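Internal ticket - ligand job 323, adenosine-5'-diphosphate:
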Amino acid sequence: MANSSPEFEVIAKYFTRPAANAVLGVGDDCALVDVTNGMDLAISTDTMVEGTHFFPDVNPENLGHKALAVNLSDMAAMGAMPYWAMLALTLPNVDHAWLEAFAKGFFDLAQEYNVSLIGGDTTRGPLVMTVTIMGEVPAGAALRRGGAKVGNDIWVSGNVGDAALAVAHRHGLVVLAEADYHEAVMRLYEPTPRVALGQALRGLATSAIDISDGLLADLTHICRLSGVGATVDVNAVPVSSIGAKHIGTDAGRNAILAGGDDYELCFTAHPNSRDSIEDLTDVLGVPITRIGQIKRGKGVSLLGSDGKPVKIDGRGYDHFKGP
Ligand code: ADP
Ligand code: MG
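stdout (structure tokens):
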């Protein structure tokens, strides 16, 4: 294709920026990066599909932010330092206002984390965006899902549930006040990846995961890969002031515990690490809350204030089962 084609115009105009931390960025057949000695290369990909991951009416600037944020969150969950991103974009047509806004959302966040866009692919079709992120973590020090041990504490950063409450509101399952919906939906559209926290947890956390499918589902992944069970004190799960209004209802509790898209970190650590972890709250300005314990056995049990099991309907999002 000639260089004046719309495809190359899109790449040149919206996605070609200096890549200070790469040997070679956008423009050649491959990008080139120099991986630091003694570091493992951490790599992850996440795709967002219209209708599955976002409502068709979402603002493209929010989409640009989210496409990168969900990938930065995977870096956070491994304790990795993000450096490089690739963007595969499938677009129904060339809409300059859309591209301008999408690129702004993407690059504003990329700049905040010193991440360079070093390549990608641009094709025509239904709206789909795939970001691949690459970063570094000291060899052997990555936080994995499989390291939780019986007796470990379970912790979660920030608060959970607002994003899922916004989705539940859109689906008519809960009713949020208008101002609450507007606040909650921003957690859905512009999640904050806990990158600094993930790196600070190296050497402290025994396992970690980012909450994309829901606290319950993601903690279940830790349990399965670690060969352990978990109990979670439902009343200890940190919620926002919006979440606090809805956790008393079945649908609200369901969204908060089983709904996804929070991009907070859930991790486990030895009880000896409690003080060090609590210190991180002050250093990083991110609340971190202890919500339960790793036990022998399998799966996650939810306990209410009376110590009795709490049952919820949802078990987290599965693409081939639906919510
Ligand atoms: P090829 O034909 O070798 O697959 P392309 O024509 O798809 O290369 O892309 C040309 C250059 O532009 C490559 O360096 C590629 O990585 C980059 N690129 C394409 N699309 C994007 C995008 N959406 N964002 C960033 N870089 C892109
Ligand atoms: Mg290509």
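Auto-summary: The chain is about 35% helix and 25% strand. The two ends are 42 Å apart (CA to CA).
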